[in-house]
Amino acid sequence: MARPLSLVLLFLLLAVATFLRLHEIDRHGLWIDEANSVLIAERDLAGVIEGLRNDANPPVYYLVLHYWVEVFGDSERAVRGLSVVCGVILVGLLYLAGAAWRGPPAGLFAAAVYALHPLQIYNAQTARMYTLLPLIALLSLWMLSRAAARGGRMRWAGYALVTALAPLTHNWGLFLFPAGWVLLLVRGRNTQLPARARFTQLPAFVAAQVAAALPYLLWLPVILKQAEFARTNWIARVMAGVPPILKVPMSIDSFVIGGGIPDYFAYFGIGTNASQVWIARALFAVLLFPAIRAAVHALAGRGTDAGEEGGEKPAREPVLSDAISLSYLMVPLLAAWGASLFIPLYIAGRYDVIAFPAFALLAGSGFALLRPRPAQGVAVALLIGLALSAGRPYYLAEPRRDDVRTAHYLAENAREQDLVVFAGPRRSTVEYSLRRLGTAFSLESFPRELADHMGLFEPAALLENPAQLDRDARAIADRARQPGPEQPTLWVVDYPAGPLNVHLYRQLGDFAPDRTRTREDLRVFCFRPPLNE
Hints:
By secondary structure, the protein is mainly alpha-helical. The chain has 24 helices and 5 strands. The chain has helices at 3-22, 32-41, 45-53, 60-72, 76-102, 104-115, 118-124, 132-150, 153-169, 182-189, 202-218, 220-226, 233-238, 247-255, 277-300, 306-309, 318-340, 356-369, 374-396, 402-413, 427-437, 459-462, 466-481, 502-507; strands spanning 419-423, 442-446, 490-494, 512-513, 524-528. A 5-stranded mixed beta sheet has the order 2-1-3-5-4, covered by helices on one side. Helix 5 runs parallel beside helix 8, helix 8 (132-150) runs antiparallel to helix 9 (153-169) and helix 17 packs antiparallel against helix 18. The longest helix has 27 residues, at 76-102.
């Protein structure tokens, strides 16, 4: 493919990716983790770190978001714009990486797999780290391949710096470290490479990995503090119906455009079309097979590049393309799966996005190797058709803005001296909207510990201490009963949590429900405290 045409197609793809990520970006209100991210990021730097002590995530995304909000503001569009920028940059880098290893067609196809995937569009419309993390993973993959092929202190330092950012962006970033170990196997066993090209930089590689791990070790005291609050039972609950042996295949299936999307994404309008899922799986099986075969041949020392078999001009760094991509796809997933046998941390379709760039590069490599040539046209047509079919329902999903409406209702009906209690995890989303509206109420959480870590909510764990729940509920009721110049009204923003909220309503037994101001559709309940004698 001529270079000018490749660049035209790349800019067209970047424009499409940008449009898809900006279109309807504020259709839905922020969800719990998004709002919590913004509330933490809006603090000063010391407050960000302190806020993360009661959260479950490392600091890089929150620090970047902190400065992003200072420049662009905290509207829904603004805070999600950071993810859009990371996602569009990732599209461009996938092209550059694929083109460097297998030529422009491979780069364009790899970029298109990411640009058009509904799940990745959703990630780019979410104020979370799920576009920054794969961007860092791709940079780690690319810089490792260049350092291993060409050496040099600056290249190894670049690999160490980028890789260090991964676990400080999300804890799954730790699983990138063993992904690089495949170099030991590839470079050591491939006797068909000239001696100068074999992996002889083991000390530099080990030093780079040690340097990359040090910043995360400095974060360890905060991790230990987070461990007091972190609860992952929700992951076990979401993945309960998935046998352990199927978790990794489930992740790979979710990478396929039109493939199997985990059921919990139906809430966001992303689902699986049963009539197309097997077409999608068949297409990507055909694409991945030659790339995986090339990687296996490289690992076994039987060849450097599958492109040579098909008459293609070998890439400049052929041994690294498919072998390292396969490692960066499978090793993080398998490492996370192994860890999940002891700790519930594996959730398909979310944290596994760290491996998505490697999947896209393998698909692009397989596309470039596809024979006969007309088959490439068929693959492109199928990819576009699957993207249109799978992506359309996402933009047609019912807007989720109940918490935005709740904030507006409270701003219009509650008074400054009133007490607003959040029974469950809705505080971050409603509080975010209340701040945007410029309102100031007295806010409480039930259970009260949720005020410290609004993104973590596990009813089953909280129910293990009923005495504490009763104390929290009694403290809230007593606060609402305190005398003042005007008797405050008590508002309860409820979240259905089974027996958990029973403890609160039991303490409010002598409060009079104000049904004229209760909004059951928003689960906002209004109470008048008993008159003080």
